[in-house]
TrEMBL record:
Residues 1-25 form the signal peptide. This is Amine oxidase. Residues 260-679 form the Copper amine oxidase catalytic domain. InterPro entries: Cu_Am_Ox_Cu-bd, Cu_Am_ox_TPQ-bd, Cu_amine_oxidase, Cu_amine_oxidase_C, Cu_amine_oxidase_C_sf, Cu_amine_oxidase_N-reg, Cu_amine_oxidase_N2, Cu_amine_oxidase_N3. It comes from Eleusine coracana subsp. coracana.
């Protein structure tokens, strides 16, 4: 349910209270709504009561919506659109949950019917015993694991030899990855690294370098230990980022504080349960403990026909692959799959009103299942707000008429849906930005803390060999690494039957002959477009930096009056790095999809997670690259875009101790989808009619 933070904004509060009251009175949930606390409780009850999983203890690692079949959801959405005008609810679809639980050293998959949460039932059960990989780590088992080192005598001695007080030590759990061997015989283990938290909140800046522990997560015991090398622990001074701890305030002038003023209120944003309606957009906001924000049924209103036309069926972040580039024993395995190993939704903490999101934001809370299966409430997990940053939607000044100057300008107001994931040391700000022009912009912003290595170096001149990173402070190396954020986007451009088109820019010589495209002029060359329609998945893999051109998703059955196919095109805005690891390197085999930014596959409800369902200790035997290798047909089919936004991160001193935000983005932009500019007739704003960002003088 959405809630609004405000200061003396009573009219807006009353509006949203009315909307929330209406939503809460609905007779049944939307079929794509995330599981409610009552439904999560019902899932727990059914699983624990089922004779299909008798072993104990039983721990819940994933509980999420088992979404209905896509045709059923689309039929429901069509009925809902038709009946909403008559204030009648369409018939409900079954509510089901997909569960991954651990018991008896095996991963159990269960599907649970919670349509009637008072009498849930287990519909199916399977055991993932022989296949590679394990489910997401729970928060509780990580907390249990990090409680082990202070009681482990060899570690206590290692800490003593370094002159560190045990009370200042804090440890964290790191997945081990996979580096060959028989995956089915592997144990569910993780590595633990420890840090000195005394004197700073930035404990990542003070690693106890050289010490590695392996913990068996099923036995909850340390099973391997090594203290290989001893380096100085970096000092605490200059590492804290907290207000009042980071030093004196900045010297010199600072920008005045800003506030958001909406003279006409924010009644343009309507929230009904998990459905958001704003300007010409309507979409559903959901939540998943692995993916985080899940966006569904995004449709845009055609200004000429008054008809809503679907653009996106379902979209979410499928995986975040972060490999570090130091091959030594304490670092080689740091090749994180943040969504599959940790869970993006589990590490999405409450957003801070007024700083993470502006004062005009509305908020969605989230619920997920804890290790014991009970619902956990996370407040202010997603925010929704209108943004006006002084940008221009369109404009033109015409000075060609003698004695007359014509200027037309329309401001660009957008709607942002935001979640922040604090996955260990990094913070990912994940924005979905909806524009009245029909575009959807996806923005990934990185900030947070660098993961650093203890070193004897105190000056860059001392480094004579490859240090695999940048010396950002005394005894502190920030290691080179990558960030690959992979989106799963089930596009439905004006329907489910779509094709993937590659419009490549090709240079031509001027032949001088009009029959071959030339002309009898001095011009020697020009470029034109070579159109290719992808037939199979092999054609749907594209390195977007290899050739200039446009990549489009079109509906061949829907055309404009000019005869052009209705479509949306992919527009990259930087952050197009692809992995350069060797193809036979083990981390690359687990995340082989990261070598190419664009993959297009036919829709399959079970194909959600780019590295496969079981990411922890996965081997690359499941996932996007394996599915795509089937080379299925993608022309005139229901197709899915997988897009990876990538960054090679060479750290610099300005990134320490906390990194200023660095962003990358891409956009889905209408291309012959409308008959003309859809915001041509946008209202001319009167003075003060739009949202304003005001700077207030503080005296």
């Amino acid at each position: 349910m959405a809630r609004t933070q405000f200061a003396a904004m009573l009219p807006l509060f009353l509006l949203l209270a009315a909307l929330c009251g209406t939503a809460s009175g609905a007779s049944h949930p939307h079929p794509l709504d995330p599981l409610s606390p009552a439904e999560i409780t019902a899932v727990r009850s059914a699983v624990l009561a089922s004779p299909l999983v008798a072993a104990r203890p039983l721990t819940f690692h994933y509980v999420g919506l088992d979404e209905p079949d896509k045709p059923d959801v689309l039929a429901y959405a069509a009925r809902h659109s038709a009946t909403r005008r008559r204030m009648v609810e369409p018939d409900a679809l079954p509510r089901r949950a997909f569960v991954i639980a651990r018991a008896g050293r095996a991963s159990h998959e269960l599907r649970v019917d919670v349509t009637n949460s008072s009498s849930p039932s287990v519909l199916s059960h399977a055991v993932h015993a022989a296949g590679p990989g394990f489910p997401t780590l729970t928060l509780e088992e990580q907390f249990d694991a990090v409680a082990l080192p202070p009681k482990y005598a060899p570690f206590v001695e290692s800490v003593r030899r370094r002159g560190v007080a045990m009370d200042d030590v804090l440890c964290a759990v790191f997945p081990v990855g996979w580096f060959g061997g028989e995956a089915s015989a592997s144990k569910r283990v993780a590595k633990m690294l420890c840090f000195v938290a005394g004197g700073t909140a930035n404990f990542y800046a003070r690693p106890i370098e050289g010490v590695t522990m392996v913990v068996d997560l099923d036995e909850m015991a340390i099973v391997e230990y090594r203290d290989r090398v001893r380096y100085p622990v970096p000092k605490a001074e200059g590492t804290d980022y907290r207000a009042g701890k980071a030093g004196a305030p900045l010297a010199g002038p600072e920008p005045a504080p800003g506030v958001v003023v909406q003279p006409e209120g924010s009644s343009g944003v309507h929230i009904d349960g998990h459905v958001v309606r704003w300007a010409n957009w309507e979409f559903h906001v959901g939540f998943d403990m692995r993916a985080g924000t899940v966006m569904s049924l995004a449709s845009v209103l055609d200004p000429d026909t008054g008809v809503r036309r679907r653009v996106l069926y379902r979209g979410f972040v499928s995986e975040v692959f972060v490999p570090y580039m130091d091959p030594v024993e304490e670092w080689y395995y740091r090749t994180f799959l943040d969504a599959g190993e940790y869970g993006l939704g589990l590490w999405a903490f409450p957003l801070q009103p007024g700083t993470d999101c502006p004062s005009n934001a509305a908020y969605f809370d989230g619920y997920y299942a804890g290790q014991d299966g009970k619902p956990v409430h996370n407040e202010n997990m997603i925010c929704v707000f209108e943004r006006y940053a002084g940008d221009v939607a369109w404009r033109h000044t015409e000075a060609g008429f003698p004695g007359q100057l014509i200027t037309e300008v329309r401001p660009d107001v957008t709607l942002v849906v935001r979640m922040v994931v604090s996955a260990g040391n990094y913070d990912y700000i994940l924005d979905w930005e909806f524009k009245t022009s029909g575009s959807i912009r996806f923005v990934v912003s990185l900030t947070g803390l660098l993961e650093v290595k203890g070193t004897p170096y105190t000056h860059a001149d001392q480094i004579k060999a490859d240090a695999h990173g940048t010396l950002v402070a005394e005894n502190t190396l920030a290691i080179y690494h990558d960030h690959y954020v992979t989106y799963h986007l089930d596009l439905d451009v004006d329907g489910t039957t779509n094709s993937f088109v590659k419009n490549f820019i090709t240079t031509k010589r001027n032949s001088g002959n009009p029959t071959t495209g030339g002309a009898p002029t001095p011009r020697r060359s020009y470029w034109t477009v070579r159109r290719e329609v992808a037939e199979t998945e092999a054609d749907g893999r594209v390195d977007i930096d290899s050739k200039p051109g446009d990549l489009l998703f079109v509906n061949p059955g829907k055309k404009t009056r000019m005869g052009n196919e209705a479509g949306y095109r992919l527009v990259s805005s930087g952050a197009t790095a692809a992995s350069v690891l060797a193809a036979d390197d083990f981390p690359q085999r687990r995340a082989s999809y990261s070598r190419t930014q664009v993959w297009v596959t036919p829709y399959n409800r079970s194909e959600k997670w780019a590295p496969g369902v079981y990411a922890d200790q996965s081997t690359g035997e499941d996932g996007l690259a394996v599915w795509s290798a089937r080379n299925r047909r993608i022309r005139n089919e229901d197709i899915v875009l997988w897009y990876t936004l990538g960054l090679h991160h060479i750290p610099y001193q300005e990134d320490f101790p906390v990194m200023p935000t660095l962003s990358g983005a891409f956009e889905l932009r209408p291309s012959n989808f409308f008959e003309r500019n859809p915001i041509l007739r946008a209202r001319v704003p009167s003075d003060g009619a739009h949202s304003q960002n005001c700077s207030c003088s503080v005296r």
